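Forwarding the complex inputs:
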Amino acid sequence: MTDLASSRLPRKGQALPSWDPLLRLAHWGIAGVVLANYAFTKEGGSVHIALGWAGMALLLLRLIWGFVGPREARFASFPPNPMAALRHLGGLLRGKAPQYPSHNPAGALMAYALWACLAVLMLTGLGMSGLSPFARADLEAAVAEGDWSVLVEEDGDAEGESPYGDVLEEVHEVAANLILILALLHVAGVAVESRALRRNLLAPMLITRRGRKG
Amino acid sequence: MKALLPLTFALALSPLAAFALPVVGDVLGTTPETATAALEAAGCKVNSFEPEDGKIEAKCTETATGKIWEIYIDPKTGAVSKVKADD
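Prediction (whole assembly, two chains):
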């Protein structure tokens, strides 16, 4: 594999990053969880919580992958650099932004921003829901059957109303909305760069290029 | 028995008075049946009951306005602990 700096390709039409299967699984898995929990599942319900746990596992996996994964997946390959991000966007406007073997500097900032918001989203979600989607499913089933005594038995312990509940809920909702806005910007950025510089940035996130190991 | 008094009162007055949503402290009951009846008497048709933070969250639609409310009920005492518009 070539050295990271020397493999930076300044001209368009050169090799695109090749994302490994685990990275792609984390990317699309987290996107799916966020969309499903935003649009389809019932807020605070057991399915919402279970999906949140799945998203948390995928995020953790991706963050660990940032240290031990292939070169293009490692944080060292795309350090946060706002000035370089601005330069990249400026270059994009002029139609000649360089290509990078990993995230470009603007994409890198977006990834870090999304991960930070996802971490806030998941921690506040955990704070509101407690620790297990299975316990939550049992409670929902009991209440749905008309048995409110399950709450009386648990009241006084961990199930008591948290004074921070409303704050957690607000922060959770703000983080969710922010993630959606960032995701739209991310999609727009991919579309603009793909079109302006004739680079298909979407394809490497969908398929593994032949002849190259992950 | 204590829970029945405000319920009876609410039911008796409901045809005469304008509907008023429950407020914190009102006792709606400790079973889905009594709480449903009390909320409907107060002009809010129950859609669902769910556990929330150790309380029962009753979602109901205010019949006069169509607005959805979240009424939190203490499952031990049957009293309303919080009333919140569903946003």
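Residues 4-85 of chain B form one domain.
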